[in-house]
Amino acid sequence: MKGECDKLIENIQSSGWEASIVATGGGSGAVHALLSHPGASRFVLETQIPYSAEALSAYLGYAPAQGCSKETGRLMASRALERAHQLQVPDSKFKGMGIACTAALQTNRQRKGADRAFIYIKSTDREASQVLELARGTRAEQEEALSEALLKFIAEFVVEVEP
Which Gene3D superfamilies does this chain map to (predicted)? Predict the structure, then answer.
């Protein structure tokens, strides 16, 4: 996946988009991949990882009904888009987006529901979401699969499809 991942990141970085990225519960591998690739500042404005329930509440300005849900992902992406607009370079031809990933991966405590993730991307005029049911496995395996899916989803979003 390394070569494919590098190509995805190059496509993302050269897209002209800039993003504020927020992840909770999973997806930090994608953030790491984006930041560790040369030229990260062409795309990444900031990243936030409000991991605890309290940190997520502080990020959103209130406590969501559920930390890992499509609605929470949408709210996180909206907040991230606000942050992207605040961080944009004045007088630039800004194409900004908010990217959110909220996940419930393998844990050592009792949890209701399947291992899953919700990815949400929002720009001024476009939004997209993806729901992932994660296969059983180690937390590291799930993080890797989620991070690859997140990078692919971002790459799809930034590519303008010709008719």
Answer: CinA-like
Alpha-carbon dihedral 74, 143, 153, 71, rounded to 10 degrees: -10
**128: in domain:** yes
Q: Quick check: pTM over 0.85?
A: yes
Q: Sign of torsion, CA 63 67 72 77?
A: positive
pLDDT of residue 9: 94
- The CATH number for 6's domain is 3.90.950.20
83-98 pLDDT, tens digit each: 999 988 766 677 899 9
Residue 146 to residue 89: CA distance in whole angstroms: 31
- Give the C-alpha separation, 6 to 37, whole Å: 8
Domain extent at residue 36: 2-158
Residue 118 CA to residue 88 CA, distance in Å, equals 26
79, containing H or E segment: helix 70-87
